[in-house]
Amino acid sequence: MNQDQDKEQAESRLGPRPPDTREKLSFYRSELSLKPEERVANEFLTKSFNKMPTYEPLGKSRPPDFSIDETAFEVRRLNQRFFHQDGVNEGLEQLEIPLRSALYRELSKIPFSGQGGTIFWGLRFGRPLMDGIGSTVNQLAKAAREYYEEPQESRERLQQAA
């Protein structure tokens, strides 16, 4: 008995394999290795087309990143570059990631207080930073701590300064 006959016998006993099972398993295995921007694109494509896109249809690390039917999608992440006066260029993530991580670490040290309420924070900065990351984070954390731990006094100071 050859492989085709074995396959036919198995299908006759178990019924036909559900469509796309192998492709879905392949996608879920590869989903673990998706870059963050590819995860966003995958979610967008799934919702927009109401179909599961095929990830790397032509093989690992070969364009396109996704395909749906006959349409291919290549995912690109834009990077904001900053050129210093000495000509050295810096990608946004080279400053943003360490700055965000350090700020999160410092703000996480502020203990919760029912009196202070909840803190929401966002990060917006210009380049170059006037001070280093450590100094900038310390200044921001100090201001947040003062505002949170002594909300009435710091609000009054902010109103007077405005």
Instruction: Find the count of extended strands (DSSP E, 2+ residues).
Output: 5
Largest sheet: 3 strands, antiparallel
Please mark out the parts with pLDDT under 50 across 5 or more consecutive residues, or reply none.
none
Order of helices and strands: HHHEEEEEHHH
User: What class, by secondary structure content?
Assistant: mainly alpha
Q: Total domains, how many?
A: 2
Proportion in helices: 40-55%
What coarse outline follows from CA principal-axis ratios? elongated
Total DSSP helices? 6
Radius of gyration: 26 Å
In order across it, which strands form the biggest sheet? 1-2-3
Overview of the structural elements:
The structure is a single chain. The protein is mainly alpha-helical and 162 residues long. It has two domains: 3-73, no CATH class; 81-161, no CATH class. It is built from six helices and five strands; from the N terminus they run H-H-H-E-E-E-E-E-H-H-H. It has helices at 3-14, 21-31, 36-49, 92-107, 133-149, 151-161; strands spanning 54-55, 66-68, 71-73, 81-83, 89-91. It has a three-stranded antiparallel beta sheet with strand order 1-2-3. Strands 4-5 form a two-stranded antiparallel sheet. The longest helix is centred in the C-terminal third of the chain and has 17 residues, at 133-149. The chain starts with a helix and ends with a helix. The mean pLDDT is 79.
